[in-house]
Amino acid sequence: ENDRWRSERPKICMARRPTRQLSTAAMVDEPNPKPGAQRGAEPGAAALATPVTSAGAPLLPVPAARVALVGLGLIGGSLAKATRRAWPGVTILGVDRPAILEVAREAQLVDDIAPLDAALDLIASADLVVFCLPVLGIAQSLDRLAPALRARPVATDTGSTKRLIVETAVRLGLTRFVGGHPLAGTAQGGLAHADASLFAGA
Asked: Exposed e or buried b for every residue in 39-60, given b needs 16+ CB within 10 A?
């Protein structure tokens, strides 16, 4: 009787549903393009490659024409290199000690420079400001550059902890400040070790 029950019960077929990776390319009714391929280009036509993330998804255009990096060590230098590679039309502004600024300018990582004690005008001209310093240095720089930060730019940071930085931003009335974290790093610091791929997969 058990054999008869097994033969007569309905058979259920579990078909696997096709999966689809959520990405910018998957949100249109076209096959996913190869990374760097320009949609709608004729086969063999020369096309400007679209920058892609480490996962193969196209990068969105950066909503800032002028990006200021306060601190050009490992993180700031890597951001400069990554920005140059992904969005070559963006103007990169560098703020640091004069000796480091000269090295960065010679390496063509920055377009305009200013030391921290004379950077108010440069910062005020930026659309986005990224503070790439140790936590205490970020808090001190926010204090020094607050008049320029209130005027126009959105500001963020790459500090490893947030309490002191956010408390400083609140005290200064910097309503356009958004705390951040690089989620990346290496054992060696400094501009000499900056790497455009440091944030890939972060």
From this structure: eeeeeeeeeeebbbbeeebbee
**pLDDT single digits (tens) 137-188:** 999 999 999 999 998 899 999 999 999 999 999 999 999 999 998 776 666 7
| Beta carbons within 8 Å of 10's beta carbon, 6+ residues apart | none
42-87 per-position pLDDT tens digit: 333 333 344 555 555 566 777 799 999 999 999 999 999 999 998 9
The β-bridge partners of 95 are 70, 114
Helix (H) and strand (E) counts in the chain: 6, 6
Residues 103-115, mean pLDDT to the nearest whole number: 96
Answer whether 174's CB lies under 8 Å from 142's CB: yes
Element (H, E) at 93: strand 91-95
